[in-house]
Amino acid sequence: MRIQHLDSSTKKNLLEDLLQRSPSSYGQYEQAVAEILNNVKIEKDKALFAYTEQFDHAHIDASNVRVTMEEIQAAYEEVGEELLRVIRGSLESIKSYHEKQRQFSWFDSKPDGTILGQKVTALQRVGVYVPGGKAAYPSSVLMNIVPARVAGVDEIIMVTPPGADGRVNANTLVAACEAGATAIYKVGGAQAIGALAYGTESIPKVDKIVGPGNIYVALAKKAVYGHVSIDAIAGPSEIMVVADETANPRYVAADLLSQAEHDEMASAILVTTSEKLAREVSDQIDGFLKELSRADIIQKSLDNYGYILIADTMDEVIDTANEIASEHLEIMTKNPYDTMTRIRNAGAIFIGEYASEPLGDYYAGPNHVLPTNGTAKFFSPLSVDDFIKKSSIIGYSREALERVHKDIEAFAEAEHLTAHANSIKVRFEENR
User: Fold this and answer.
1) Is there a single domain that holds both residue 116 and residue 217?
2) Which residue is catalytic, options 178, 238, 327, 353?
3) Rounded CA separation 386/373 (Å)
4) Which among 7, 86, 90, 346 could bridge 329 via Cys, Cβ 3.0 to 4.6 Å?
5) Same domain, 177 and 242
6) Which residues of the chain are modeled with pLDDT < 70?
7) Is 59 a catalytic residue?
8) Could you tell me which residues are beta bridge partners of residue 241?
9) Residue 380 labeled ligand binder
10) What is the reported pLDDT for 215?
11) Annotated catalytic, 327?
12) Tally of domains in the chain
């Protein structure tokens, strides 16, 4: 794994390198995605089923596109009791954490008859996209559905691509059922995003689409934004470890590799003030690569986007962490809580040597759907907030409005909006 001294040139080159992984950089796929979406919008089920046969090699039609209770029961029989126990334990942690995020309507009334407030309403129907095939992750099913359920969403429509046999991964089905999906449909790719955004004869239009997917899914979500809301356009996974001389090099190396195994575009970065730690971590990585099953993918990921950066001061380490704004940020320093207070930009922050990144992926409770590619500077993890909307409440008595009506009229007239001013004036015509 490459080791570099951290300076302004290194940081600039690194940031440019990482930003190339953004889904926004893959414009060559946009025309194909636009064509798929347009066909689904116009031809609905006909196009949806044709694309499913073309891309997933599965014969799906209106009679079998929706997963049945019999299929779900068969999935439970296929999934072992041990994994079911783990899924339920993880679900309980996720639910407990997200219940603390719930927001409530509020109203503030005053003696003069003024009533102001905010009405919090859950979205009526959301779509959850779940990748299929080798990328079947029941943990992501839980992370996307549970906060929607906690928020009070009425209908949670899940879509996931089927195998060539027309079946959906059993682990995915069980996780969806446990989490509370309302309906599950056997479609994937950009065509599934189109179905959720526009609606077809079989799949209802939703208000918001969440969930990860490949570049076609990411670009499709980007394209339908405005017809529906979306969570974010997710890029490849990334991890940064901030460490000093007190960190355990074996732990650091293992955690860097935990993200590098996702795919060849994943990034894994260590920023440290200790050259000794940097060398030891590099050696540990070489050792792990001889043992891990996805070593080929990991090696390509490290070759492309793996860095060990040595900084002169901890201030430089913190500045770099805030500039990169990593999806996952682990802190392994002598005083990790002090370091944490200086972190401004990160999707999820893991504190101390026993808070390794997979803890957040699977079991701790906070959401693992996180901002990537530097968007942690302005985006947050998926949460209950993503599944609610807020309406302002305004109520005034005649007496309350009378006190301020001339000010409102003056403001409206200053903007040359005489109809606005008149809307207030007519309520006090008898006073003129």
Assistant:
1) yes
2) 327
3) 20
4) 346
5) no
6) 22-27, 133-135, 432
7) no
8) 270, 330
9) no
10) 86
11) yes
12) 3
Q: 158: domain CATH number? A: 3.40.50.1980
Looking at 98, 238, 328, 357, which residue is catalytic?
328
- With CA atoms as reference, report the closest residue to 159 among 136, 185, 178, 135: 185
Does 48 share its domain with 183? yes
Tell me what pLDDT residue 432 has. 64
**260 shares its domain with 275:** yes
Residue-range definition of the domain harbouring residue 346: 3-22+235-364
Beta bridge partners of 3: 308
| Distance from chain centroid for Cα 249 | 30
Predicted structure pTM score: 0.92
262 annotated to bind ligand? yes
Cα separation of 334 and 169, whole Å?
A: 44
Rounded Cα distance between 312 and 283, Å, is 22
Would you say 213 and 182 are in contact if contact means Cβ atoms under 8 Å apart?
Answer: no
Q: Is 318 a domain residue?
A: yes
Q: How far is CA 113 from CA 332, 401, 403, 420, in A?
A: 56, 9, 11, 22
Looking at the structure, do residues 71 and 215 belong to the same domain, yes or no?
yes
Q: pLDDT tens digits, residue range 367-389?
A: 999 999 999 999 999 999 999 99
What is the pLDDT at residue 13? 82
227 is in an annotated binding site: no
Which residues lie below 8 Å from residue 172, measured CB to CB, with a gap of 6+? 130, 132, 136, 137, 138, 141, 160
Alpha-carbon torsion 250, 251, 256, 257, what sign? positive
Q: Per DSSP, what are the bridge partners of residue 129?
A: 159
35 and 180 assigned to the same domain: yes
Q: Any binding-site annotation on 259?
A: yes
Q: Which two tokens stand for residue 352?
A: 């101390």
At which of 230, 257, 272 does a domain end? 230
- Give counts: helices (H), strands (E), the chain: 17, 14
Q: Is 90 annotated as a binding residue?
A: no
pLDDT at 134: 61
Question: Does one domain contain both 32 and 73?
Answer: yes
- Per the domain annotation, does 285 fall within a domain? yes
pLDDT tens string 248-264: 999 999 999 999 998 88
Rounded CA-CA distance 257/292 in Å is 9
Please identify, among 176, 198, 230, the residue that sits at the C-terminal boundary of a domain. 230
